[in-house]
């Protein structure tokens, strides 16, 4: 679907769980994971054409849902395989929000590694799959100031959010602080197996990212919000919407 869209001058990129598989193709635990939904990202100018392309290739739209929410998210089903397809437009809006509309040309197949990492670090009620996705990405991709053409995790992109929005900082650092204890006590055999040594030392990557986030200068808005701390809610809980 990404290749077909590209042939037509449309920008579509993979996000969600399968994007981590695409970025870490040797990660055997991810390959064997069930529930392989498709999560795609596009931009407003391509939304209508991408939706038409999905329908033309056998994906059935949820017409009621798409009529209500199609300005920001569309839903389809690959009926023969019972595979849901979410098409997000311009932004990811869950516990926190970030725009990817200007990031679709960084990598050829997926959102850039930094954006994939942000998509997991922003989850307040983080689960085991989310933690493993984060650890796999940190095991395979180095940090850099920029995206390195999709071959690195941009620290500038991460701190763009954690230095301007205290809520982003609070959720991100809270999740980072869970990673080393998970490695020490909860990681099961084979869950981070790449069939070879990992390219990065994940136990060094986690504190390095935390240090970069803490060292980055914070905005005035960040400092004002920090005074209230956890006494005020700093996130949204995504609303579950049913599909026809």
Provide the descriptors you would attach to this structure in a database record.
244 residues; five-stranded mixed sheet; 11 helices; alpha/beta; 14% strand; globular; two-stranded antiparallel sheet
Outline the structure in words.
Helix 6 runs antiparallel to helix 7 and helix 9 runs antiparallel to helix 10 (202-215). With 244 residues, the protein is an alpha/beta fold. The chain contains eleven helices and nine strands. The chain starts with a helix and ends in an 18-residue tail after the last helix. The radius of gyration is 18 Å and the shape is globular. Helices cover 44% and strands 14% of the residues. The strands form three sheets. The chain has a five-stranded mixed β-sheet. It has one domain (2-225). The longest helix has 20 residues, at 166-185. The chain has helices at residues 2-7, 17-23, 28-31, 44-56, 63-69, 113-121, 128-140, 155-162, 166-185, 202-215, 220-226; strands spanning 12-15, 38-42, 60-61, 73-78, 83-89, 91-93, 97-99, 143-144, 153-154.
